[in-house]
Specification:
Elements lengths: L14 H14 L14 E2 L7 H13 L4 E10 L2 E9 L3 E11 L2 E11 L24 H17 L6 H4 L6 E2 L8 H10 L4 E12 L2 E10 L2 E12 L2 E11 L14
Parallel strand pairs: 1-5, 6-10
Antiparallel strand pairs: 2-3, 3-4, 4-5, 7-8, 8-9, 9-10
Length: about 260
Amino acid sequence: MPPTPDFSVAMPPSKKDQIRTLLKGIETGDPKAVEVVNEAKYIQRNRLTKEGNIGLAELFKRLAKPSPKVEVVRAFEDGDFVFAHTDYDFNVVEIGFEVFRFEDGKAVEHWDNLQSEPDGPNESGHTMIDGATEAEDLELIEANRIFVRDFITKVLMERNFDQLGRYVSSSEYTESNPNMKDGLDALRRNLANSRGERTYDSIHRILAEGNFVLCVSEGSLSGVHSSFYDLFRLANRKIEEHWDTTEEVPPRSEWLNENGKF
């Protein structure tokens, strides 16, 4: 009997997979990696990169010269958005968050936030990228989004640190910030002792897939205009894990495009 023909149709790559391929292009310098980008509509929010495919291709070629290493540690989808947590080695190791907006199957807008990674783990033994990577509780996406917005607003913006216990697990809180350590009490002490050095002024975007929620905020660190990307993992209606990057917003005189950071 002849074999049964296979009429199955290969599924197109997900948005997450397309972005993984795009970011891996930084390592190879392959200009084909940017084919997922719609050059005609592409809005580049990295102020140090030119617009469109040409800007990305030039960037990839430049970054490929020192033989960089690129690892996409975790990636998530939220409707038309993909957000990825990345580990870059461009002779200097940087941890980043990359956000892309899709339209008609192509990436049409990009934001990012990068921070240099220290040589070793924090006091609790965690690097900036350790921890869980797969989303769960997909049915709770909107509830988790609202929960994180409330946390950022009431605790970090309004500095009501007495409300931390409403949002952060008292028994299971893992902290990947290089200057902090695990535990609700440690987080409370760190925030209380900051004396306003790290201020959150506005929320620009909250993206989520299941129990992973990324909040993009604007504020200042020690008086320097900064962007804050905070990624949270929720479980049992509490925050149980946190990663972040902080980046200075450069002055307008240094921009290579006219789009804002946010």
